[in-house]
Amino acid sequence: MRIFDAFVDAYGSAPEGVWHAPGRVNLIGEHTDYNDGLVLPFAVPWGVTIAASPRQDDTIRLLSLQMGAQTVEHLDEAHGWARYPVGVFWALRGNGLPVRGADLVIDGDIPEGAGLSSSAALEVATAFALNDLYALAQSPMDLARTAQRAENDFAGMPCGIMDQATSALAREGHALLLDCRTLGSRQIPFDLPAHGLELLIINTNVKHALADGQYARRRQECEAAAAHLGVPALRDVTDLAGALGRLSGAERRRTQHVVTENHRVEALIGLLRAGAVTEIGALLNASHLSLRDQFEVSCPELDVAVESAVRGGARGARMTGGGFGGSAIALVAVERAESVRNSVKAAYAERGWRDPDFLTATPAAGARRLT
Ligand code: GAF
């Protein structure tokens, strides 16, 4: 295993273990997690692998095969990508758990900038490694929450729980239905090939600079709207028309998206239960329009990917993840996949944009120890 050899080269002995955590793609339920709502993501076959050994002191030595090396004696020395793994040490220690230093080698194969949650995979792989190295006996959901806290309070990105929970809990061949209020989850069988379908990921290869600031702003707008309506979270809105009548501007549009998106997750689950997988495309399309027009987190590259995929014969398509770039997904009949790809490529070429990348996503397993 290349990571094993890299560890021996870097640190002069074999690692105590090797762990893997996947990235994710979200089928539906976008920008609902921090509104206490429902999400339906699944893990992708790409992720972060970490070889690690514990240390007798508090030093953290990190070697990423993609990003370079950092040695961290004081947690606040971590910079850039290292804030994600080091934030996990910080969060576990903050919980009073006996975590000292470690030597780590990190190897990742999630396409850069694709919006497939490479940071969550890095955090969750670190959390699973430390859980075993220091016999912490934390549950996968405990570790997901620790990883989220690392990202929120150490790396400074106010994300919800979806990405870390998916990486920690996913099961091969299944999508994960997660209630982000109770943190209850259910594994939903999701076997597209059995229905002659595949899920195409269209990586736009763009990330607009405003992404992080706009994410925090959306979160604040949702919280302000819930406060106006006198409910704990937008999840609790039961009379949408009544709520919309009491709101205006951005708060009104954000509420419209979050409430209808939660309904779309439930509707999609209903179709999957009924075996009507081929029918879920309309919900994907509706989700995209709502994210574009009501939540305002799409961008021209995502819109063109979605529209040209549908024009090329996709059963449905939508942006996935936080937005402002990253990836779209398209549900396609296997025999139409080529025509969908060609349609998207042609639409990009017409605008003089760089070709998007295409990947096919099959639901993969969640975080685990490899050796
Ligand atoms: C990003 C965040 F990290 C998630 O928590 C979620 O809010 C998502 O955007 C939007 O659904 O991936």
Describe it for me?
By secondary structure, the chain is α+β, with helices and mostly antiparallel strands. The protein has 2 domains: 2-190 and 365-369, Ribosomal Protein S5, domain 2, CATH 3.30.230.10; 193-361, GHMP kinase, C-terminal domain (Alpha-Beta Plaits), CATH 3.30.70. The protein is built from 11 helices and 12 strands. It has helices at 2-11, 83-94, 118-133, 140-154, 162-169, 211-229, 240-246, 249-273, 281-293, 300-311, 337-350, and strands at 17-28, 38-54, 60-64, 68-72, 102-108, 174-179, 185-189, 197-207, 316-320, 325-333, 357-361, 368-369. Strands 1, 2, 3, 4, 5, 6, 7 and 12 form an 8-stranded mixed sheet that branches. The protein has a 4-stranded antiparallel sheet with strand order 9-10-8-11. Strand 3 and strand 4 form a beta hairpin. The longest helix has 25 residues, at 249-273. The chain is globular, with a radius of gyration of 21 Å. The model has no long low-confidence stretch (mean pLDDT 97). Bound molecules: 2-deoxy-2-fluoro-alpha-D-galactopyranose. Residues 26, 30-31, 33-34, 159-160, 162-163, 321-322 line the site of 2-deoxy-2-fluoro-alpha-D-galactopyranose. 2-deoxy-2-fluoro-alpha-D-galactopyranose (GAF) binds at residues 26, 30-31, 33-34, 159-160, 162-163, 321-322. ATP binds at residues 64, 113-119. GO terms for molecular function: ATP binding; galactokinase activity; magnesium ion binding. Catalyzes the transfer of the gamma-phosphate of ATP to D-galactose to form alpha-D-galactose-1-phosphate (Gal-1-P). This is Galactokinase.
